[in-house]
Amino acid sequence: MTPLVTAAVLLAAVTHAGWNAIAHRITDKLTGFALISGGGMFIGLALLPFTAFPAAGAWPYLLVSAAIHIAYYALLMRSFRLGDFGQAYPIARGSAPLLVTVLAAVFAHEVPDGWAAGGILVSCAGLTGVALWGLRGRRPDWAAIGAALATGVTIAAYTVVDGLGVRASGTSLGYIAWLMAVQGTVLPAYFLYRHRAGAPALLRPYARLGLLGAAMSVTAYALVLWAQTRAELAPIAALRESSVKLRSGCVSHWYEDCRAQRPCAVVQAHPIAPGPAALDRPGLPAVREPAVCPT
């Protein structure tokens, strides 16, 4: 993994955390996700005239990914309703890299070497520790944990599906534009069906915040898709999620969800830190770069 790819993935991680925090800040979760998803749709539509059309082989992946993303949004909304942000977020994001590793080995024939596998395990263990630290002294909410784990499954699924799809597309920018345009229709349509005449009153107070979240969401995932054309899927997934240790603690404190969660960001920094170092360890064999997706 080159330094440029590493920087892109880490920037995507921070940007992704930002839109998740915005979605959590909006009290009505359906309103928040409808704004972010609908805003992503408009951004995708605006990009279409300036991007190449994805190759035919990418479309099955793109359509399946759109369906998985809708399930992801639904499960993430449920996770946010059932559990606090500082616990649901690291469980959902931290469970995904291990699943990505298995799925990528099966479907993309990418098996990480010893150092990369060790980095993935360390990162996932540290992320799990973030959530467990927040549970200390309290009875676990198994419904919330189950929803967060199910969210992690969808994250792993769309990560691998999109990794294969963007490599087959010939255009990472075109792929993200069409993906946003396709998947972004469902949640806004459902929101309008649910609220009808009352929709404008619900949307108006959060319109700017939601559109900011949409821009951050599209940017974050566009960076990940580009990186997936330059490196293997599992190390990217682990590196992307490794900064949850700081994101979940600081963002939870910012929104006063769980003030006791903030120290866990510091406590868990030590077990997670070696993970990204192993994933991007100098001297490892260079990852093959697919000869597609020049954008």
Walk me through what this model shows.
- This protein is mainly alpha-helical and 295 residues long.
- The chain has one domain (3-279).
- Helices cover 76% and strands 0% of the residues.
- The protein has helices at residues 3-25, 29-47, 59-82, 85-94, 96-108, 114-135, 142-169, 172-183, 186-195, 199-203, 207-228, 233-242, 244-254, 262-267, 269-272, 274-279.
- Helix 2 (29-47) packs across helix 9, helix 4 (85-94) runs antiparallel to helix 6 and helix 6 runs parallel beside helix 12.
- It is globular and about 55 Å long.
- The model is unreliable at 249-278 and 281-295 (pLDDT under 50).
Mean pLDDT: 80
**What coarse outline follows from CA principal-axis ratios?**
globular
Biggest β-sheet strands, sense, barrel: none
Q: How many individual β-strands?
A: 0
Q: Could you name the ranges where pLDDT drops below 50 across 5 or more consecutive residues?
A: 249-278, 281-295
End-to-end distance, in Å?
Answer: 18 Å
**Percent of residues in β-strands:** under 5%
Question: H/E element string?
Answer: HHHHHHHHHHHHHHHH
Structural class: mainly alpha
**Domain tally:** 1
Number of helices: 16
Helix content: over 70%
- C-alpha Rg (nearest Å): 18 Å
